[in-house]
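Ticket #4471: structure export looks truncated?
Reporter: QA, pipeline team
Priority: medium

Steps to reproduce: submit the single chain below to the structure queue and open the exported record.
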Amino acid sequence: MKFGNKERMEKWRVQSPEEPGFHKVIVPEACECQEAHIFRLNLLKDESYKLESGNLEIHPVLLKGEASLSEHEVLNQDMVRYDSFYIPAKNSIKITAKEDCIFYIAGARYEGIGEPSFRRWDPTLPIGDIHQIHGSGAGEREVMFTLAPQDSASRLIAGLTWSREGTWTSWPPHQHEKDLEEVYCYFDIPAPKFGFHISYLKSGEVDEIVTHTVHSGTMVQAPCGYHPTVASPGSKNAYFWVLAAFTPTSRRYDLAVEDPAFKNK
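Actual output as written to the record:
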């Protein structure tokens, strides 16, 4: 069945489950994205889960609570909020919740590039390779890479972004559809706070925009097209963004194409 563009884009929004356990949220067999995999793991205090990567590279970030990692050759340590780690294919690791926990987990096909690694959240990092400020004015936002381009991985790049209060992120609108898919996974926007995630396919075609209301737990695909976001007044948009490259050679952060209709405006 062939869908119109708006109907197609309306299907890109998913509300991830809050029930305890491991959940497949965005996977190729059920979604338009074919390279990006997104999972959510909700663990109650003192519960454990054995995370197995299978044929994927896996990159979890802890967005709520504290946890410990064990039963892995390299990664056996405690995690606090915003800490993250990476494991390649054919790895397993035990995660035990010290408090009620929420993990957002990115995955992509493993191509033999990538070794187990851990990134400790450090908001005091100077502006540089990991901690960055993007945009300016109403489009300024703070970015912290959790899996940076210079980190060893096959297809994934990922990070956390926070808007300023009531401002835009990913502005000017951009796309990277020839090289990478992206998913935005929102957190720390409890109701009644909300933001908007905007999708459109062709430069300047704002009459064809689809607007998704987003809050904590919302995940929106960007398999193609432009995708800016904006926070409501009194709110900040916060999201874990995941880029999944079509090939290891296109695993780059500098391939975004700004909408020329808005460039330098």
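Status: closed, not a bug. The export was complete when the record was re-opened. Leaving a note from the reviewer for reference: The first strand starts at residue 13 and ends at 15.
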